[in-house]
Fold this sequence. Notes:
alpha/beta; TIM Barrel; eight-stranded parallel β-barrel; 11 helices
Amino acid sequence: xxxxxxxxxxxxxxxxxxxxxxxxxxxxxxxxxxxxxxxxxxxxxxxxxxxxxxxxxxxxxxxxxxxxxxxxxxxxxxxxxxxxxxxxxxxxxxxxxxxxxxxxxxxxxxxxxxxxxxxxxxxxxxxxxxxxxxxxxxxxxxxxxxxxxxxxxxxxxxxxxxxxxxxxxxxxxxxxxxxxxxxxxxxxxxxxxxxxxxxxxxxxxxxxxxxxxxxxxxxxxxxxxxxxxxxxxxxxxxxxxxxxxxxxxxxxxxxxxxxxxxxxxxxxxxxxxxxxxxxxxxxxxxxxxxxxxxxxxxxxxxxxxxxxxxxxxxxxxxxxxxx
Length: 323
Ligand SMILES: *[C@@H]1O[C@H](CO)[C@@H](O)[C@H](O)[C@H]1NC(C)=O
């Protein structure tokens, strides 16, 4: 996922990586909120409707009614250099404003989290220390009164190396986050590219199949990016047979390699301008979601990004299969 603010860098990175890989991508602190009153089960919904917010919004978040139909909003991004874009916007709000927004959102059943890294950070390649980075970010989540963190790790060159360093970095980062942001009290999701959830000769060290093996129990769910790969463009490609360069990476194929179906959230761009490819109209997506639900999946839907997607978008994308 990339922000407009940093799109040029993203595009350059994507072009470089495309030639190598053909993967084109480019609880609140105790004093600050009342997460303790929310049951462990309630903190991470079992069907998730997640919207990323990276484009500037005055006051950081719109009225909660504008996000009716979602239960998680992810402020993007927390980077190695600190908060940027909407995460920075939130950070800059006065404490009383944060509390008021949180109360408004919690009443509407929407959790507020921060998303880490994004398409322009390359944590492993740039040599960041996984443990220190996790401690810094977990502390930021708490001191800014948020409900958790999403890990949008997109260090493609590290993953493509196949030497296991990317997998170890993500695993160390995840287990360290959980020391400060315990399961049941804080949300911890990841946002991997769909091909990373299936075995591939391009990711010899196992990518997320390996990461799930080592720290899967610590991850609440996966916001899977089913886009930017020239695949997943219709219900068949998305749900049952991805084919192409990454066979086995459609929704119902992924669990065959070990990652549970219940943790898979279908991620899509809001408009064709929000990704290189993989866009589906919300109505078409809704028809696929309805089919998937009928086959026993109920993971949820993620969209990149507000305000290109809104309440009407998610209503269509649910295809009448979810409330
Ligand atoms: C992935 O993690 C889940 C825990 O959420 C676990 O049940 C599953 O067995 C893991 N898959 C593999 C292949 O280890």
